[in-house]
Amino acid sequence: MPVLFRRLFPGDERLTQLLPLLHQAGMRLEEDVEVMIAAYQQGRVVACGGLAGRVLKCIAIDPARRGEGLSLTLMTELITLAFERGRPELFLFTKPENRALFAAAGFYPLAEVPGYLVLMENSPDRLRRHCAQLRRHCAQLRRQRQPGQRIGAIVMNANPFTLGHRWLVEQAAARCDWLHLLVVQEDASQFRYAERYPLIAQGTHGIRNLTLHPGSAYVISRATFPGYFLKDQGVVDICHSQIDLQLFRHYLAPALGITHRFVGTEPFCPLTAAYNRRMKALLTQPDGLGRPVEVMELPRLEIGGAPVSASRVRALLAAGDWDALTALVPPTTLAFLQHAHRRETTPA
């Protein structure tokens, strides 16, 4: 019987037809999916899969239809959809037992949490090429500025950039011969990457032993980490940290020659505090795959008797407390926030 593929968008009532198949596969429909492709046979859903940014997710095949080549046909439909939207670089997270299925569709493993999850991408060498580009940049820095042997790194979201972020970068730079600042690229925050990156660049201006790197898909945001087939939230958090830190230690850190990673103390967010604890365990212990990276946790800057944080700034912004907010952000961030506020409040 022929298989008919349909593209379903958020709000389409037919999305409910996919729920039994997803549930049977131990999944749920993720809110960030932009498009779902459903495969129908004799009016019945026999397969589905979705696209969220550059990630393929919610891929499920009717067990009775496995072995018929339907999975490869579905993957072809999903990859075609992504290419039409200008996204040739694709990733997926899946259970380790599905590795062979997606390998047949041209996906290659990058990192794995045994027994739980594997991250795959549709290229055998894109990550290696990315790291080679980072190495070339580092070699250029050595020729021009002699950055030395103590090389630090900070991974930053900065939603938005505050004086606390500036303080952390300054303190880390003072402890290093050279410091690399990696920005989270994914748009899962109140402020988009296209807004956050220039604020970070402006806010760190004048720190001479610093390289600010454009975001990449290899720094994974917790907010976009797919946990739809991991039922325990604690397992989701552990798997996110394992995958993200594996990529950092085994690929990004060696490419940049990183010896130290810096983080601020985390008094507010239990998830971030737990991530920092796992970071110390995963980066500092020998594992035979990458050189250990020392983790240094620095005290946060305090203003007005409390640590400066992006969440505090966002709360003040929502309350319209510009006097208190002004004390917590650099002039460039303040100007951006004021402009955005005027744009939102000015009648069209």
TrEMBL record:
Listed InterPro entries: Acyl_CoA_acyltransferase, Citrate_lyase_ligase, Citrate_lyase_ligase_C, Cyt_trans-like, GNAT_dom, Rossmann-like_a/b/a_fold
Q: Report what the protein is called.
A: [Citrate [pro-3S]-lyase] ligase
Summarize the protein's role: Acetylation of prosthetic group (2-(5''-phosphoribosyl)-3'-dephosphocoenzyme-A) of the gamma subunit of citrate lyase.
Q: Which residue intervals define the domain N-acetyltransferase in the entry? A: 1-125
Molecular function, one GO term: acyltransferase activity, transferring groups other than amino-acyl groups
Q: Which UniProt key words apply to this protein?
A: ATP-binding, Ligase, Lyase, Nucleotide-binding
**Which gene name belongs to this protein?**
citC
Q: Which PANTHER family match?
A: [CITRATE [PRO-3S]-LYASE] LIGASE (PTHR40599)
Membrane spanning segments where?
none
